[in-house]
Amino acid sequence: MDLMIQYTFLPHTDPDASLAFYRDALGFEVRNDVGYDGMRWVTIGPAGQPGTSVVLTPPAADPGITEDERRTIAEMMAKGTYAAIVLSTSAVDAVFERIQATGAEVAQEPIDQPFGVRDCAFRDPAGNMVRIQEPR
Q: Starting at the edge strand that comes first in sequence, how are the strands of the sheet with 53-57 ordered?
């Protein structure tokens, strides 16, 4: 099979703050920015990887989600337990320093993990966990 990841979705609570984090702190490029019915979807992706994108989406935009589910999603986002993304780099310490210098919320400084990577973690403006790993 020839399968590749084309899109993945992360919720946002403030599209401008999320866009600033992914564009300015992580260096992603904006691929699309669409508004509809008072909501906004922003598609971003790593420079030089046009086939892989992240869509920053309004949480619980699906009309089939109940109000109780919307509240649960909002609570989980606030705790940072709703969504995550794992990125890879060949220089995690340098990337950590660059992102930290932007004022991003540090969740974990770089450490060597027993499962063969050195990694760090940040929370984006919506509370999503952003882990960055360097394979060892």
A: 7-11, 53-57, 39-46, 28-36
